[in-house]
Amino acid sequence: MSSGTFTTEDGTEIFFKDWGPRDAQAIVFHHGWPLSADDWDAQMLFFLHQGFRVIAHDRRGHGRSSQTETGNEMNTYAADVAAMARHLRLRGAIHVGHSTGGGEVARYVARHGAEAAVRKAVLIGAVPPIMVRTPANPGGLPLEVFDGFRAALAANRAQFFREVPEGPFYGFNRPGAKVSQGVVDNWWRQGMMGGTVAHYECIKAFSETDFTEDLKAIDVPVLLMHGEDDQIVPIDDSARIGITLLKHGTLKTYPGLPHGMATTHADKINADLLAFFRG
């Protein structure tokens, strides 16, 4: 097992974990906002024990990577992944992204996937094709929603980063929900490791980036996994539209499951991921 860093062309230091046999099928995990590679612990350990090579990085401005004030947008995020793939000499990897990380995967595979011979992709509760309401996306969320995120982050990031996991992210605000304080604390811990500037600017990146052409351009099998009770990225505005844009897409939905279902229902998600990886 190993972890380390590499430096991008603009001097940003990117932290990554790289566990498992170097000749095994590689899976690269892309985390959501405002988290880190640690958000994939339940998947990294499971797939390591299944014989895979598992890799996860902290996006620039997040976790243990440099707290950047530049490059906090999807083109650069994808370029950073391409640089990591070259650094680790990845060929034929499978890329899995959650939420904002799903947008990163879509942009990376569309623009850089051929270079590294990407084999498959998975988007879990992912932001593509676009979150914000526009004339072309009338069902999206109003810009004011994301302005509210920015205002809350600027006013008291530490408090905001309590309210998100305690409430909608894991569905802990639903009647009868079994709340895990450890999961809430871990979300807060990861968020507070990152940089305020990067987190603030990433809100625009995940909400306003249009991935429509990226989805159309992807020419490998893609599995869309989405909780039907996702309160962060509503399924009707994301996966149900995204599946119509993919050449080789499969949509799997989960009744009653929340945005953070890869954590709250890891056994179910891991089993379905394993079937897709081996299929």
From TrEMBL:
Source species taxonomy: Bacteria, Pseudomonadati, Pseudomonadota, Alphaproteobacteria, Acetobacterales
Keywords tagged on the record: Hydrolase
Species, as recorded: Teichococcus globiformis
InterPro entries registered for this protein in UniProt: AB_hydrolase (IPR050471), AB_hydrolase_1 (IPR000073), AB_hydrolase_fold (IPR029058)
One Pfam family cited in the UniProt record for this chain: Abhydrolase_1
Domain named AB hydrolase-1: residues: 26-255
Name this protein carries in UniProt: Alpha/beta fold hydrolase
GO molecular-function terms, A-Z: hydrolase activity
